[in-house]
Amino acid sequence: MGESYRPQALVFRDALDSMTEDQFIWEPYFVDIIENLLDYCRVGKDI
Q: Torsion angle, CA of 36/41/45/47, rounded to 10 degrees?
């Protein structure tokens, strides 16, 4: 990830940071989606 990645990451971080609890609803992925992810994408999913 080069320098061009950094400004976008800051925009998303700022947007997420300014949200209140009622604006962000966590919904876990469905099992069929998780099963199709690469192994390294599932590391730590049981935490």
A: 180
Taking the alpha carbons at both ends of the chain, their separation in whole angstroms is: 26
- Apex CA 30: angle with CA 35 and CA 12, to 5°? 100
Give domain limits for the chain: 20-47
Q: What sign for the dihedral angle of Cα 19, 23, 28, 32?
A: negative
φ, ψ of residue 39 to 5 degrees: the values are -55, -45
Interval 1-47: pLDDT, tens? 556 667 888 898 999 999 998 998 888 889 999 889 999 988 887 76
